[in-house]
Amino acid sequence: MAGTRTSIVFGTVLLALLAGCTPTPPGPDPDPDNSNQGDPATSEPVTPVGDGSIVATDLDAPWSILPLPDGATLISERDTAVVRELTAEGDLREIGIVAGVQPDGEGGLLGLALDPAGENVYAYFTAASDNRIVRMPLIRSGDSLSLGIEEVVLDGLPKARTHNGGRIAFGPDGMLYATVGDARETTRAQDIDSLNGKILRMTPDGAAPDDNPFAGSLVYSYGHRNPQGIAWDDSGQLYAAEFGQDTWDEFNRIEAGGNYGWPEVEGEGGGEGFVDPLVQWPTDDASPSGLTYVRGTFFLAALGGKQVYAIYVGDDGTADAVGWFPGEYGRIRDVAPGPDGTLWFITNNTDGRGDPGPDDDRLVQYSLGGMVEG
Questions:
Q1: How many whole angstroms separate alpha carbon 244 and alpha carbon 246?
Q2: Residue 232 parent element (H or E)
Q3: Cα separation of 232 and 210, whole Å?
Q4: What is the DSSP letter of 301?
């Protein structure tokens, strides 16, 4: 089906500001053959168009999508601890099982990242005693990939059945960023000496960079409950998505050293000393997980909301969000750039909280097209 849409607007719609011409509502491309799709590298805002196509099926509680430079894609499975490769030709195969993963509740094998040199895969996972980050050599042998022996980069992060965070990614500065939940101890989020309830920034070896906001610390921002999405825009600015508790989920512009309020405040209105979200949703509408930036637009995977949000950040720093495919695919865990400027996302209906269909979980692809005519 073409993308049904729902809108959550905080302030004036930004389409005219973003495009500089007369807006048309976000929705299916008025050009049915998608000839208006444009250069995939453009930073003009885009929106899903046409019908989705199923790229892969029968995944087991997938958690993270990691595109590789050669056109292949890695997918982590939370409960099996398996890393699967989806080849550029569309074949799905197992390339390794991450040792030491102990699934429990929302914990297990979570985020994946590739270092800037393309030589190592990093994984965030729940072990018997903690959450940790490891790296594994990505071994290429002809057309085959495999993972080498794990080396610990960071360990000792307190774990829980919920609120483990788990997203990792290398930023444009070459540093490794990680989202860490409060592990159900809310006071940790405001404690700078704790790494829980934080977004961390570290060197590829797990050390604190000299220019981090708190000397000698991995902490980059704090006051987070359970962030699970991070992405950068064209300028290198970091944004993050975060689960709220009972009231508001959040999309935040991340500032070095910024305090995002939890548990003192949830959503907007924190007052002096706290950074307000750019967008907030009632928790039933979002439960945000993965976040990506494709062709000038952020896309956010919503688990409880069972949809993908397109988020448009204006030059004035405000943002609007438009929901796509509500209820059509069930729970959505992660989003990523697909081939040729498309959008990929994975469902998460087999994680114990969804209602799986016969082919779940699935990797879905949508074309992206321009939002406006000018």
A1: 6
A2: strand 226-232
A3: 21
A4: E
pLDDT tens digits along 333-373: 999 999 999 999 999 999 999 999 999 999 999 999 987 44
SS (H, E, C) 101-160: CCCECCECEEEEEECCCCCEEEEEEECCCCEEEEEEEEEEECCEEEECCCEEEEEEECCC
pTM greater than the 0.85 cutoff: yes
What whole-number distance in Å separates Cα of residue 159 and Cα of residue 163?
A: 8
Non-local (6+) Cβ contacts of 43 within 8 A are 234, 295, 296
Long-range contacts: 325-330, Cβ < 8 Å, 24+?
A: 325/1, 325/3, 325/4, 325/48, 325/52, 326/4, 326/6, 328/1, 328/4, 329/52, 329/362, 329/364, 330/306, 330/354, 330/355, 330/356, 330/357, 330/360
pLDDT digits (tens, 9 = 90+) for 298-347: 999 999 999 999 999 999 999 999 999 999 999 999 999 999 999 999 99
Token pair recorded at residue 332: 């959505």
Q: For residue 326, which amino acid is it?
A: P
CA 304/CA 270 separation, integer angstroms: 25
Which contiguous run of DSSP H or E holds residue 175? none
| 205 three-state secondary structure | coil
What are the angstrom distances between the C-alpha of 121 and each of 96, 118, 136, 345?
11, 8, 5, 20
Using only C-alpha atoms, the chain has a radius of gyration, in whole angstroms, of 19
Q: What stretches of the chain show up as alpha helix (H) in DSSP?
A: 15-19
Read off φ and ψ for residue 204, nearest 5 degrees.
-60, -20
- Contact 58/359 with Cβ under 8 angstroms? yes
Residues 147, 45: Cα–Cα separation, whole Å: 37
